[in-house]
Structures are given as structure tokens and as C-alpha cells.
Amino acid sequence: MHKQSDNLFEKSKEIMPGGVNSPVRAFQAVSRNPLFIHHAKGSKIYDADGNEYIDYVCSWGPGILGHAMGQVVKAVQKTCENGLTFGAPTEKEYILAKMVQERMPSMEMLRLVNSGTEAVMSVVRVARGFTGRDKIVKFRGCYHGHSDGLLVKAGSGALTQSVPDSLGVPKDYIKNTLVAEYNDIASVEALFEKEGKEIAAIIVEPVAANMGVVLPEKGFLQSLREIADRYQSLLVFDEVITGFRLAAGGAQEYFQVKPDLTTLGKIIGGGMPMAAYGGRKEIMEMVAPVGRVYQAGTLSGNPVATAAGIETLKILGQQPEIYEELAQNTKKIADTIREVFGDRVCVNQIGSLMSVFFTEEKVIDYKSAVSSDTKKYAAYFNDMLGRGIYLAPSQFESMFVSAAHTQEDLQKTIEAIKRIGEKLINLLYK
Ligand SMILES: *Cc1c(COP(=O)(O)O)cnc(C)c1O
């Protein structure tokens, strides 16, 4: 029963493109109408028709503690009463910045902004300002927000010109964005051999989680560090997803590779719009008003968002065991899928990030990720939804497990996977 959601969707489509404010929410990849959410609590999300689901989207990552966590909500309420925004510095901004810096020592200085897109956009400008170079290297299948210079895909054939990944992105804007293949160091070396002296930075998701979850192969991140050093380019980790999720100190702690610059988002706002970028002091001192790289924001470091971020990081800091528990719980789900579907699928999991790809290939990069049969994923998604389990409505997104997921939730999820497994195998593989 999704009558209310369907009604709301029809009305919304009249006034917003696709009825949504961010495309993946429209559920196009799974060929059905989206659910309109009424409220959420803990691990559960409730739609406009009152249906309850175990939520594994968790707002695409911020919800590591689950929904409407009492302590976070209280901090937000209390802050609201004292004013929503001042456009002037507050102590809270210092407290949050300090908390981030203690967890990620590579961020000697940082700045708070409002979205991951903004953080990446700004960090690229800083990298260019610092090095005096224009080009950047990104990886096919990695997502860094929707700014012009990063909505880029590789042209056909290696080392050809990159092309815009969206209408409205001028070719001129992206001529400085070079595209390499994830987990393929040779593709990075090739770009640097040709244009290394013009490359300001390599930007990478240390664990790719926007083409489904793709883990860095052993040595990949270290090699990027080494190449960046060799050419005096900067290494930027986009930790918008992995920051505070893979470990307290993010992927840079997990893999012990130190980037020059880092972007954060999602968890840092505890569910409110908040992001950050930062890194080595001498680089960050390029930013205005100290330096001549301009970046600003009316609502940057907003007190309400900052309060939610502080409380979330505080709770995570008080429970360092959380990461091990999340990893174990996520692995249980991953192992169940492997058991049920066998080598018909590739399951990639690390910490509380997981994807199942409906392909027999080992998924290590964009090419192998898109070998997945998205129709099979859609069937799996729809069947799980029918059993009260809300997964990412796209093959190319991660599953997010939160600290609010109980053993009962996991058991229910595992049972659902086992039950649909046989059905889907009969249906899809005959
Ligand atoms: C979500 C995401 C972004 C963009 O963040 P927004 O807040 O949606 O603008 C950037 N980089 C990565 C790795 C992301 O997952």
C-alpha cells in the first residue's frame, strides 16, 4: 500500500523535476515510484502510508547513529532556541573543527562548508592556488559532487580528452580534469608522464562508494601518495562518505595513508547540512582572508548544523568499539548474500559499507561495476522492499549499516535475503 506516496509523487512531479530534489531519490533505477518518508526513528523509517522499513540508506551515509538520536536532537533543539544563524563566528565552530582535527591529524587547518559538493569545489581551488597548476586527476566512477569541473567522464580510449557527464557543463571547464581508472596505477602514471608538471592534485575516494562499493587494492592509495610526491602534486582524499565511518579517523587512518587535503561531509553534520575541507597548514593558509584563494558561505558553520555534528562526533568518540561492531554486522549480511547467491554475485564490503553486484566478475573498477545486471538488482531491491527492508534504490550506491540496527533487524534482513534468494535464482537465472 503506497497510495499516499503515489499521490505525493504525482503532485511533486508537477512542480519539481522528477518530483524530487536529488535524482537518485526518484527510484528510476528500480522502476517504481519512490516512497515519501513521513518520519524515522533509530533503524526504522516510515513512509506516508505508515509502512515501516528497516532503513539501510541512512540518508546516504550521515545516519551512522540511526535516526532522531535523542542526544543529537536535544542539542539541536537547545541551539535553535538561541538563534538559528548569526553570520558571525561561534565557539561551536571551534569545538567541531578541533574534534575533526583530533581525529584526522592531517587536517591541520580546516574550513566548514555546507555540502560535499562545496567542500570538493573549494578544495580543488585551494590545490590549484597552492601549486599554481590547473589540472586535476580524478577516477572514473568516483563521485565528488555536482560541480562543473568534476562532472566528467573519460573519452573513448585511454589518454583521450575527457568529456562532460552532464549537459550544461562547458567543454572548456573540464579540459583540466583528467580521468584515470580506479585501482589502475598504470593509468595514473600515464597521465603524469604526459602532463605531470601541470597536475595540481589527484582526487580520490579512498574507498569508492559511488559506483557501488569498490575497495582500493593493496598498495593503490600508497602508490597515489608516491606519484603525487614525485611530481609535487597534492593528494586529496574525498572522505565525504568514509570520514568517521570506516574508522574514527576515516580511510586515512584505516589505510595509514596521509593525504595533503581532505574533504568531509555526510556524518560530520549528524544529519544537518554540513561539510568541511582541510589539510596541511601551509596549503590552507592560501584561503581568504589569510591568502588569496577566495571561498565563503553565508550559512557556513551554521550553529544548528554544528551542534548536530558535535554531538554525533562526541557519541562516536565515546564508543570507539562502534566501528568493529558495525563491520561485523555488515559482514554478516555480506556473508549471507554470498552464501545464497554464490558466484552469481560479487559482494564488496568494508566496515559498514557494502554492495552486492549482480555480476560474476570481480568488481574492482568502473568497468567491472557496470558489468552488473541492474535489472537483477532492481528485482532484488523490490523484493526486499516488499519485505520491509529499504535498500539503496540503485545498484551503484552503498548499503549503510548504522549503530541503531539491532540484532533483530539483522536477523530479519538475513531471513529476507535467504527467502528471496531461492525465488530470485529461479526467476532470474533460468
Ligand atoms: C555525497 C558525496 C559528495 C557530495 O556531497 P553532497 O553533500 O551531496 O554535495 C562528494 N563526494 C563523495 C565521495 C560523496 O559521497
Provide structural commentary.
This protein has 430 residues and is α/β, with parallel strands linked by helices. 38% of the residues lie in helices and 15% in strands. The protein has helices at 3-15, 70-80, 91-103, 116-131, 171-174, 185-195, 220-230, 250-254, 281-284, 303-318, 322-341, 366-369, 374-386, 407-428; strands at residues 37-41, 44-47, 52-55, 109-113, 135-139, 152-153, 163-164, 177-180, 199-204, 234-238, 261-264, 275-279, 346-350, 353-357, 389-390, 399-400. The strands form four sheets. It has a seven-stranded mixed beta sheet with strand order 4-12-11-10-9-5-8, sandwiched between helices. The protein has a four-stranded mixed beta sheet with strand order 1-2-3-15. A three-stranded antiparallel beta sheet has the order 13-14-16, covered by helices on one side. β1 (37-41) and β2 (44-47) form a beta hairpin. α6 packs parallel to α7. The longest helix has 22 residues, at 407-428. The radius of gyration is 21 Å and the shape is globular. The protein binds pyridoxal-5'-phosphate (PLP). Pyridoxal-5'-phosphate (PLP) is lined by residues 115-117, 120, 143-145, 205, 210, 238, 240-241, 265, 275.
